[in-house]
Amino acid sequence: MTQISRKSYPVLSHCIYANTAAYGLLGDGILEWRQNHDLDYLVGGSSMKIESLSVISGTRQMVGKFFNCGKDLVALVPNFSIGLNMLLEGLDDKEHILLLENDYPSVNWPFESRGFQISYAKIDEQLEQNILEKIRTNSISVLALSLVQWINGILVNMDFLKSLKKEFPQLLIIADGTQFCGAFEFDFENSGIDVLGASGYKWLLAGTGNGFMLFKDLAKSRFTLKTTGFNAANADLNTKKSIAFNKHFEPGHLDSLNFGSLKCALEILSGIGMKEIMAHNQVLSNKAMKGFNELGLLNKNVAQRKEHSTIFNIRGDDALFNHLKGENVVCSRRGEGIRLSFHFYNTIKEIDSILEIVRKLM
Hints:
Elements: H1 2-6, E1 16-17, H2 28-44, H3 46-51, H4 53-67, E2 74-77, H5 80-88, E3 96-100, H6 105-112, E4 117-121, H7 127-137, E5 142-146, H8 158-167, E6 172-176, E7 195-199, E8 211-215, H9 217-222, H10 256-272, H11 274-294, H12 300-303, E9 311-315, H13 318-326, E10 329-330, E11 332-334, E12 337-341, H14 348-361
Parallel strand pairs: 1-10, 3-4, 3-5, 5-6, 6-7
Antiparallel strand pairs: 2-8, 7-8, 9-12, 11-12
Helix pairs in contact: 2-10, 4-10, 5-6, 11-14
């Protein structure tokens, strides 16, 4: 799988790309689709754009199929941040919110800026227990969190969220899947999550300008949405007062290039197989965890977790970061360390190379 897939990503021919947590790669399959789309627009003008409305509905259907969510409960948004801000405009300000300390700013800031009562759970090796204790003792009504932490890659346990939902059925769970979707197989309908949002430009490899929100019925009953526009009513003057819940997130026109790219990306991932992608990523995660841990480069919050994503933040300063860059390793400075992230197009050999590069500077 991996060797065939690597040929679609030319960047991999001249570097070790360990930066999907910042930007996923553009593959030649999506490039070809985008070029054909714009060529059709070039010669077809408005007639092509009108016909391309089917691309939007096709993307909605594909997102629903890929994540097991009814298409009428899928909203297409330019990115997660916009979608969450739209959503919170309709949330009662009397809700008591539980957030994670130092979670991704686009998760925490929208809640903090609206004056909700907020509690925080600590992100460490006992993350799930920290969340449970806060909910049992603080009358929490909404839990909002990233499924994978952007700085250190800590992965929340999906079974924990399901059990949490069983114990607290009225708890509304809102999740950011931007660092999760595309790296892990995921069944929304059978998860403990009520609202899942994600941007498509990282692990889904769909480029920027596209994302989605998925909802369950409980979520619909907890929000009074105010966002509206002609597109929300499907350009029908008579449906102004009967706009569907998911369409409140689509008040204006949606770009067929960007959302068609999302559809194309999901088709490519489906063709490879999410089970295969997840299995390969688990091998990469285990390899990196063992190697970085043996070198003493991981914080105990990560090293003591039973399961982890493919995002790692290793101890290192500017000298190590610049050394990695000099060896054609593409990565990021995040927090106090260096973030390396691996996807299905990475290999065990590349992780071995990174470990050797780091070892030489120690």
